[in-house]
């Protein structure tokens, strides 16, 4: 194990590195980054700030943190632009930062690098390059969507276009900002841009359009109670009326502006409006009123230390005194104006020379910027070519996949079609087989019907013939016997026709097997009572073991038919003095109705075929009763329609037990 001292020695460099990284980490590049930086530059000591930033820059280079390096380069660029005025150094830092941002695709940082370059070019009156880099910043910010910054950039671009006398382009920017201000309910911004548009129209001598725009600005300034801006706008409106030779309206606007600036005690504002009044009175040859106002203008111009306003006051005073015939005073003011004008012009020339020198110096960096732009375009072209190749490969692969998918789909479709065709053929074969079975069944059925109808009808014909031809020779007992046989044949025929009708209705769907609750015990009792007389003819006893009511839900009429057929069938095949038992049993899901007799019974072969329509199993009863076997087929049909099953257990000479089930639910 390591001792605590050794651990401390080993961890110390790591902690130092971590501390350095935390200290060296500047604020993230967001929309507020530049505002925070400008506030820091304004507050901090310039020399100390430069030294600290250079240290941070070197540390970021040591750890190869290019994002931090770019931020510190921009910071140094802004310090030299705003504080030391060393534009050459500012440009060097800006170009180096731009190179890093473009190489590493730092879009947010690239935005601020372009803004820095635009500011440097604007400082030396190179408005063409200033506009170009501002437009680049705008394009980058469309993706970053820094909303407030986008508005600020458009405002800057509009101001640059004004300096370039590109008034249409400037107005386009101001109108874009105006639309945003209206939609965002930003009255101060809206008023500012109405004012800018008004000044643009003034520059182009469109004074009525200028007044319209300025009046819009004035309404908003009054609504938000911005008195200084209200007075400034009134002054601009007055100047447009002055240019339109509308003396009264110009004077009215100047007076309102004057009262506002008096209430604000603003020397600068008062100097502007008194100069404007002096110019208006001079123009209207009211020289006495002009000198009175221009004295106030001169006093306030000197208070505000605004040389341009002082020079304007001297010029207007000279004109007013000349108009009053005070040529000495006029000459003195003209001399003061000339002296100040020479001083201002010399300063202006000095600044112009400095700007030319700076522009020449910056021009050396232009080659570097152009090379960076060329490299960027080349990288974009290479990227476009790679993208084109990748797109081509993607399309090729996509087409290959589509073709393979189509082949697979065709194969699957063909397989499905073959499967469906095979299934259809099998279904057709099954249907043909079913049709053959149905036809065979139909033929067998008609064979059964024709055979079983023939017997009763022959009997009826014979009995009716005997009665018709031999009535005189027959005794009363013989006639009664014939009538009894005739009655038996008619009953057999009626039973046959009734079963045939029921089966036909079932097959054609004319019986609606609607399940309704009924008492099963009552159905059994009803059929017992109904068939007791028929059983009594053979001295057969019918016993019903079920007394308690049983409620089931089924089609009552069909169940009634099944019970009647089974009991009739039992009577038919039970010997004289035999016994038939009826009863009901149950399990969890079914009730089982049972009809048992001690009659002749059946062989296993007959039991196997008894419920099949295609098998002839009609036999005579114990009293030579005729039967068709159709009744049992009808029973099977009806039981199954009610959701149950039917069966039989039988032994020859022992009897049979028929049973069927009815679902409980």
UniProtKB/TrEMBL annotation:
Q: Which stretches are transmembrane? A: 392-412
**UniProt feature coiled coil, ranges:** 414-441
Q: Which residues form the Histidine kinase domain?
A: 448-665
Alphabetized, the UniProt keywords read: Coiled coil, Kinase, Membrane, Phosphoprotein, Signal, TPR repeat, Transferase, Transmembrane, Transmembrane helix, Two-component regulatory system
User: What is this protein called in UniProt?
Assistant: histidine kinase
Reply yes or no: does the keyword Coiled coil apply: yes
TPR repeats: which residues?
231-264
The major lineage groups are: Bacteria, Pseudomonadati, Bacteroidota, Cytophagia, Cytophagales
InterPro entries per record: HATPase_C_sf (IPR036890), HATPase_dom (IPR003594), His_kinase_dom (IPR005467), HisK_dim/P_dom (IPR003661), HisK_dim/P_sf (IPR036097), Sensor_HK_Regulatory (IPR050736), Sig_transdc_His_kin-like_C (IPR004358), TPR-like_helical_dom_sf (IPR011990)
PROSITE patterns, A to Z = HIS_KIN (PS50109), TPR (PS50005)
């Amino acid at each position: 194990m390591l001792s605590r001292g050794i651990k401390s020695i080993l961890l110390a460099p790591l902690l130092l590195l971590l501390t350095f990284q935390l200290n060296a980490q500047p604020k993230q590049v967001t929309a507020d980054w530049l505002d925070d930086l400008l506030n820091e530059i304004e507050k901090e000591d310039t020399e100390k700030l430069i030294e600290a930033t250079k240290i941070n820059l070197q540390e970021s280079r040591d750890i190869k943190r290019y994002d931090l390096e770019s931020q510190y380069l921009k910071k140094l660029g802004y310090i030299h632009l705003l504080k030391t005025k060393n534009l050459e150094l500012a440009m060097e830092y800006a170009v180096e930062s731009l190179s890093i941002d473009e190489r590493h695709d730092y879009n947010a940082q690239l935005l601020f690098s372009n803004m820095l370059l635009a500011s440097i070019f604007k400082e030396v009156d190179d408005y063409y390059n200033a506009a170009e880099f501002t437009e680049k910043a705008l394009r980058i910010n469309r993706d970053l969507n820094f909303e407030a910054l986008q508005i600020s950039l458009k405002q800057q671009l509009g101001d640059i276009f004004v300096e370039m006398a590109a008034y249409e382009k400037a107005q386009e920017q101001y109108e874009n900002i105006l639309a945003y201000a209206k939609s965002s309910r930003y009255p101060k911004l809206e008023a500012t841009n109405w004012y800018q548009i008004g000044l643009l129209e003034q520059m182009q001598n469109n004074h009525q359009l200028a007044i319209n725009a300025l009046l819009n600005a004035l309404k908003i300034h009054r609504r938000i109670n911005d008195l200084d801006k209200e007075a400034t706008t009134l002054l601009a409106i007055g100047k447009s009326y002055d240019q339109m030779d509308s003396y009264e309206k110009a004077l009215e606007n100047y007076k309102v502006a004057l009262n506002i600036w008096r209430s604000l005690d603003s020397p600068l504002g008062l100097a502007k409006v008194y100069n404007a009044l002096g110019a208006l009175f001079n123009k209207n040859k009211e020289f006495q009123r002009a000198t009175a106002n221009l004295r106030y203008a001169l006093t306030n111009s000197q208070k505000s230390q605004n040389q341009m306003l002082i020079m304007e006051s001297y010029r207007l005073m000279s004109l007013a005194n000349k108009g009053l015939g005070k040529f000495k005073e006029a000459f003195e003011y003209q001399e003061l104006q000339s002296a100040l004008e020479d001083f201002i012009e010399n300063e202006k020339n000095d600044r112009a020379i400095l700007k030319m020198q700076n522009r020449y110096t910056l021009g050396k960096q232009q080659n570097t910027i152009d090379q960076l732009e060329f490299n960027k375009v080349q990288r974009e072209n290479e990227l476009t070519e790679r993208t084109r190749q990748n797109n081509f490969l993607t399309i090729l692969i996509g087409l290959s996949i589509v073709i393979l998918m189509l082949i697979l789909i065709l194969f699957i479709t063909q397989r499905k079609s073959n499967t469906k065709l095979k299934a259809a053929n099998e279904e057709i074969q099954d249907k043909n087989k079913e049709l053959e079975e149905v036809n065979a069944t139909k033929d067998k059925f008609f064979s059964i019907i024709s055979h079983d109808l023939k017997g009763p009808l022959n009997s009826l014909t014979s009995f009716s013939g005997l009665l018709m031809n031999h009535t005189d020779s027959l005794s009363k007992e013989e006639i009664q016997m014939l009538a009894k046989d005739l009655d038996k044949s008619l009953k057999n025929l009626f039973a046959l026709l009734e079963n045939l009708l029921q089966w036909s209705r079932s097959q054609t769907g004319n019986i609606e097997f609607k399940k309704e609750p009924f008492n099963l015990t009552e159905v059994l009792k009803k059929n017992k009572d109904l068939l007791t007389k028929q059983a009594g003819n053979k001295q057969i006893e019918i016993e019903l073991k079920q007394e308690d009511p049983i409620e089931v839900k089924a089609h009552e009429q069909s169940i009634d038919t099944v019970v009647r057929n089974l009991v009739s069938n039992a009577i038919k095949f039970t010997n004289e003095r035999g016994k038939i038992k009826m009863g009901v049993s149950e399990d969890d899901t079914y009730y089982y109705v049972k009809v048992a007799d001690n009659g002749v019974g059946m062989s296993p072969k007959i039991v196997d075929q008894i419920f099949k329509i295609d098998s002839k199993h009609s036999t005579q009863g114990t009293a030579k009763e005729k039967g068709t076997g159709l009744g049992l087929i009808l029973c099977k049909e009806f039981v199954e329609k009610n959701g149950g099953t039917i069966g039989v257990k039988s032994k020859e000479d022992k009897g049979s037990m028929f049973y069927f089930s009815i679902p409980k639910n």
